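Quick one, probably user error.
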């Protein structure tokens, strides 16, 4: 996922976020059903192993769509006595499952492509794909690219990592269909020697899938391990705290993500207590989102420590 997938705060309520996430996922679910069925049938009828593999990839989206539909509702539940920081890690876990599913599917497709390449190199004649395979490849590219843009736009607006991850799953399917289109076209128009391009295309598809899966897994792993927020965000937090009226010093700043929420813990030294802490929390929530920020402030009395008005103190 790229930097454009990050926003400061969601523009919808948790209830609206769940509704939008489910709607966009259902749209993808039914599109994947239609595309997966069409690809497998067209791959069999059109004699294209690459298109059959691409169809299996589309069917794998069913699993990830179900994960998102189930997990996103759980992740947006309000905190309770057992889950005092909320249920955001369920969303992270869903993202991780999507990434693992992508990697497993990619490895399977790659192994199958290798088998067919070996058969071709040993002299076995591979079948020539038909026109229906080419047509379905083109249709898949158009539909999956539209699904990617639509799903990512919703995911960014509701600040849902699982929905954004699912959008990139759609994009990986579009990439795989591009590779499949090239392979099918080459196998159709370059004669018997060109038919090896069909399984090679399947292998290229697999590489795309595995790379996208790894890219999604890394931030999910970081969140599960409670890695701190990026340095740029922490600098912004330090600046807000240091510039808050009444705050003399601060220390023990700790940050992490919990699904779509960010958690901030900090000790601030003040001369007047509760109102200043409330002001600091309100400023942070205004900047990072009221529904997407959990803040814990520990108030300490001011004993003449050096004033800190920049981010240099924020240990």
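Nope, works fine. Designed sequence:
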């Amino acid at each position: 996922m790229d930097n454009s997938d990050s926003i400061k705060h969601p523009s919808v309520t948790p209830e609206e976020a769940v509704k939008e996430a489910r709607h966009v996922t259902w749209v993808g679910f039914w599109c994947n059903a239609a595309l997966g069925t069409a690809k497998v049938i067209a791959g069999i009828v059109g004699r294209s192993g690459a298109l059959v593999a691409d169809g299996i990839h589309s069917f794998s989206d069913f699993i990830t769509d179900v994960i998102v539909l189930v997990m996103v509702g759980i992740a947006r539940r309000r905190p309770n006595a057992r889950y005092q920081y909320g249920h955001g890690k369920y969303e992270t876990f869903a993202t991780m499952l999507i990434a693992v599913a992508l990697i497993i599917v990619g490895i399977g497709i790659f192994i199958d492509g290798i088998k067919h390449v070996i058969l071709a190199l040993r002299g076995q004649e591979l079948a020539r794909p038909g026109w229906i395979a080419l047509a379905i490849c083109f249709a898949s590219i158009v539909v999956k690219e539209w699904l990617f843009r639509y799903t990512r736009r919703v995911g960014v607006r509701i600040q849902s990592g699982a929905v954004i991850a699912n959008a990139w799953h759609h994009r990986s399917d579009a990439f795989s269909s591009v590779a499949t289109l090239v392979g099918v076209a080459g196998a159709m128009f370059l004669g018997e020697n060109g038919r090896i391009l069909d399984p090679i295309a399947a292998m290229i598809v697999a590489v795309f899938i595995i790379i996208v899966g790894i890219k999604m897994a890394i931030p999910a792993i970081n969140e599960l391990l409670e890695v701190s927020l990026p340095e740029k965000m922490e600098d912004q937090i330090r600046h807000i705290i240091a510039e808050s009226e009444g705050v003399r010093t601060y220390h023990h700043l700790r940050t992490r993500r919990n699904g779509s929420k960010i958690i901030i813990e900090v000790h601030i030294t003040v001369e007047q207590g509760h109102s200043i802490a409330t002001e600091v929390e309100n400023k942070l929530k205004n900047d990072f989102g009221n529904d997407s920020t959990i803040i814990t402030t520990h108030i300490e009395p001011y004993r003449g420590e050096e004033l800190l008005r920049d981010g240099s103190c924020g240990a």
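The radius of gyration is 25 Å.
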